[in-house]
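INFO batch 0412 | record 1 of 1 | parsing
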Amino acid sequence: MEEEHPGEQPVQWPGRRKDVLEALRALSDRDYQDQHWRSEKGRPDLTAAVHWLIDDTFIDEHGAQALISYLFLDQREADLVQLVVDTLLRVLDDLGPVAPDNAYLDHPGWINVLHAAGTAHAAMSSDKEDV
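INFO prediction complete | emitting tokens
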């Protein structure tokens, strides 16, 4: 029987994982976005969420699968986050990097970002990390 090691992290980059989780939470919460991003108040703002999810992880360059054991516990988490990144990049590619936040939130593809981020956030924040 394997002993549990209190305080041992299930991934190598737990701080970065927390940032990804926070980005996913914000990207999946339409009420939060409407309340904070449309008024340009709130942290994380849209720019920070994109940085935490894409720029700080390089998922767009290397793929989420490369981050299993660093940020993700398994292939399922990696696949779900990859879907978020892919849907988010489609919106960003359509509008460019400097459009106002409202333009991203009103983009027809934003609903896909909301749904994908919600699914990924739920999967990553489950109790399976305590296993």
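INFO post-check: Confidence is low (pLDDT under 50) at residues 1-8.
INFO record closed
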